[in-house]
Design brief:
- It holds the Pfam family Glyco_hydro_67M.
- Its EC number is 3.2.1.131.
- Keywords: Carbohydrate metabolism, Glycosidase, Hydrolase, Polysaccharide degradation, Xylan degradation.
- GO terms for molecular function: alpha-glucuronidase activity; xylan alpha-1,2-glucuronosidase activity.
- One of its GO terms (cellular component) is extracellular region.
- By secondary structure, the protein is an alpha/beta fold.
- The protein has three domains: about 120 residues, Chitobiase/beta-hexosaminidase domain 2-like (Chitobiase, domain 2); about 325 residues, Alpha-Beta Barrel (TIM Barrel); about 120 residues, Alpha-Beta Complex (Alpha-d-glucuronidase, C-terminal Domain), CATH 3.90.1330.
- About 35% of the residues lie in helices and about 10% in strands.
- It has 20 helices and 16 strands.
- Strands 7-8-9-10-11-12-13-14 form an eight-stranded parallel β-barrel. The protein has a six-stranded mixed beta sheet with strand order 2-1-3-5-4-6. The protein has a two-stranded antiparallel sheet with strand order 15-16.
- Helix 14 packs across helix 15.
- The longest helix has about 35 residues.
- The structure holds alpha-D-glucopyranuronic acid (GCU).
- The site of alpha-D-glucopyranuronic acid (GCU) has 9 residues, from loops.
């Protein structure tokens, strides 16, 4: 079962003797000191199955018997053990080892069943990774309320930007056939704290809102519920016309408002815990309030009013990318949304991509973060690697996400990080959200490659705790997924931690962006210049010519830097001060500009592209050293994908450098000639 990766990080294979012996006196049986609800049942079963597998002996759920007991405790029972649950909220939990005479009790305690389930998965993780649990004292509370996957899945089972097969949602067979895979999906998500899933694509039509599909969605929701996962749907703004028989979708029209309110009632009758709507409006051809000369706020509020009586939310996307963008695509979302700050209902979250363009291998943080203090902003990360080599390239994304979460907006002085804006603490918001565009599909290994599982995993862990360390998350994942062998763990971890920077180097170093083949976004095409709209062409982003390269976003150019707080704007606008990794994002720089390394800009670019290839080549040897220490099936697939990645890293390097040389007329610096 390890061979194809189906079990993700939830492999419960027997641990080696030297790892499991430490748990001998502990973890013998599971005792419920809580009401046995569906969630408690799945939690207890997961713990029993997991520990029985890992420890190679039956760890049953029993009625009593304190020897080696693991107690699952909620509510008042906590006082029996002197546990204070008051700061745990709905999803938090405690893990404690209590000593009763010579016996040890392991306690998982929470206010709510979902917290218990998260605590169970935490304990399992500790055992899977061989941690000492003899004196546990862990309190864990998520920083973000809504930790949600966004499936860009269509009802015909194609997946927009999906590289892992078809959609896992088998609409044809729903609601009568529940693919067992849905349960494994729910388990995997619950194990990393994900508590919501948007089933449909942001570009979906309105069909999913028709009665037969609401039945199907309800069946999925029933399967997700015991795992603490709420279901959400995308709401196509023109649905009242397309499926409602109205002539308009104008949010100010009472008939339109009544239609949405009725639709919400209908959904909530079938799915009482329905999460709400995700909306892409007035972007890339999607309908929206602008058609009726209404604002995003008027559009969002209408939907918010429809779901508010049921406790639902609206996640309204800030990814607006439309034709009326004369100067710089970078500036569009800020220009449209900042004037609306304070105008949204309290159950609206503005879901904002990490950067202002579109999920590039590296982007500075989006200037909207910090610029709408009266509005909860949610983070949208892309787990699927649309711009980072699809499923074949190894790119562990937690370092990229963490870089954005830790970025300092300075909007309220030093320490005003993006994470604090997202979690609501900087401005005191009630709701908070982090969304990840899913990389899940029907492939046996779920994500199209072994290593892309790590990105799903890391997304959940960072949504729970945006301050979590990417390397620690990766190490847990490697130990749970591949092996507990320290040497092998070190090798794999090293590759993962280098990987994002390697991709940046061989694709878009020094702040370049969007050089990918247009449309599909795979492979280099920096020369493309003839497409209908300026921002569809890579030349728009790099602006390379005979003299230099880069997008001037300072005062002498688009002045997008002015959308950041003064401190950040000053740094980005200053050629000497701007972090090297954003240099060409904000400046048009001459080829002979002297870099901190002493190289010219051109030499530095060549150096970065070359480094990217070199790093990937190195991994092939490192991975080969693991042959026989990783099961054959997964070993082979990774080895083959690394060969693809190396070949394509060279393709990127050679294509980009050759193209730039055709403009600047420069040679490769000595020592850098790419091998034939
Ligand atoms: C990108 C992506 C599209 C997607 C869009 C979005 O532009 O290429 O496929 O629909 O983002 O986030 O809405």
């Amino acid at each position: 079962r390890a061979e194809d990766g189906y079990w993700l990080w939830l492999r419960y294979d027997e641990l080696p003797q030297e790892m499991r012996s430490q748990y001998r006196g502990q973890l013998r049986q599971i005792v419920l000191e809580t009401e046995e609800t569906p969630t408690v049942s799945v939690a207890a079963r997961e713990l029993s199955d997991g520990l029985s597998g890992l420890l190679g002996r039956n760890v049953p759920v029993s009625d009593e018997g304190a020897r080696g007991a693991i107690l699952l405790v909620t509510g008042e029972a906590a006082s029996l053990y002197d546990l204070d649950l008051s700061d745990l909220g709905e999803d938090g939990y405690l893990l404690r080892t209590l000593t009763d005479g010579r016996r040890k009790l392991t306690v998982i305690a929470a206010n709510e069943d979902d917290g218990l389930l998260y605590g169970v998965f935490h304990l399992l993780r500790l055992v899977q990774t061989g941690e000492d649990i003899s004196d546990l004292n862990i309190t864990s509370v998520p920083r973000i309320d809504i930790r949600v996957l966004n499936h860009w899945d269509n009802l015909d089972r194609t997946v927009e930007r999906g590289y892992a097969g078809q959609s896992i949602w088998d609409w044809h067979k729903l609601p009568d056939y529940i693919d067992p895979r849905y349960t494994d999906y729910a388990r995997a998500n619950a194990s990393i704290g994900i508590n919501g899933t948007v089933l449909t694509n942001v570009n979906a039509n309105a069909t999913v809102l028709t009665p037969p599909y609401i039945e199907k969605v309800a069946a999925v929701a029933d399967t997700m519920r015991p795992y603490g996962i709420q279901v959400y749907l995308t709401a196509r703004f023109s649905a009242p016309i397309e499926i409602g028989g109205l002539e308009t979708a104008d949010p100010a029209d009472p008939a339109v408002q009544a239609w949405w309110a009725g639709k919400a009632d209908e959904i909530y009758r079938k799915i009482p815990d329905f999460g709400g709507f995700l909306v892409k409006a007035d972007s890339e051809g999607q309908p929206g309030p602008h058609t009726y000369h209404r604002t995003h706020a008027e559009g969002a509020n209408m939907l918010a009013d429809a779901v508010a009586p049921h406790g639902g939310v609206v996640m309204w996307r800030a990814f607006v990318y439309s034709e009326n963008n004369p100067v710089d695509r970078h500036m569009q979302a800020y220009d449209q949304f900042v004037p609306l700050d304070g105008k949204f209902r309290s159950n609206v979250i503005i879901q904002t991509k990490n950067g202002a363009i579109d999920f590039q291998p590296r982007e500075p943080f989006h200037p909207l973060f910090g610029a709408m203090p009266e509005t909860p902003l949610g983070m949208e990360f892309q787990i699927t690697k649309e711009y980072l080599g699809f499923a074949t390239h190894l790119a562990y994304l937690a370092p990229m996400w963490s870089e954005v979460l830790r970025a300092d907006t300075f909007v309220k002085g030093e320490g005003s990080t993006v994470a604090k804006i997202i979690d609501g603490s900087l401005e005191g918001h009630e709701i908070s959200a982090m969304a990840g565009v899913s990389n899940i599909g029907s492939d046996r290994n779920w994500t199209g490659s072994q290593f892309d599982q790590a990105n799903w995993y890391a997304f959940g862990r960072l949504a729970w705790d945006p301050a979590a360390e990417p390397a620690e998350i990766a190490e847990d994942w490697v130990r749970m997924t591949f092996t507990g062998d320290d040497g092998a763990v070190g090798t794999i971890l090293g590759m993962m931690m280098e990987s994002r920077e390697a991709v940046v180097n061989y694709m878009t170093p020094l702040g370049l962006g969007h050089l990918m083949g247009t449309g599909h976004h795979y492979g280099p095409a920096p020369w493309v210049s003839e497409l209908g709209r300026p921002e569809w062409n890579p030349v728009y982003y790099h602006k390379a010519d005979e003299d230099g390269i880069g997008f001037d976003r300072t005062k002498s150019g688009s002045n997008a830097v002015a959308q950041y707080s003064d401190a950040v704007a000053a740094e980005f606008a200053d050629l000497e001060a701007v972090p090297e990794e954003y240099l060409l994002w904000f400046h048009h720089v001459s080829w002979d500009y002297e870099m901190p390394s002493g190289r010219t800009l051109w030499e530095e670019l060549v150096h970065r592209y070359t480094e990217g290839v070199r790093t990937v080549s190195g991994w092939r040897g490192e991975w080969a050293s693991l042959e026989g220490r990783i099961d054959e099936g997964r070993y082979r697939q990774v080895a083959d994908f690394l060969r693809v990645q190396e070949k394509e890293a060279r393709w990127w390097r050679d294509a980009c450098l050759a193209y730039f040389m055709s403009l600047n007329g420069l040679d490769l610096p000595a020592g850098y000639a790419p091998p034939a």
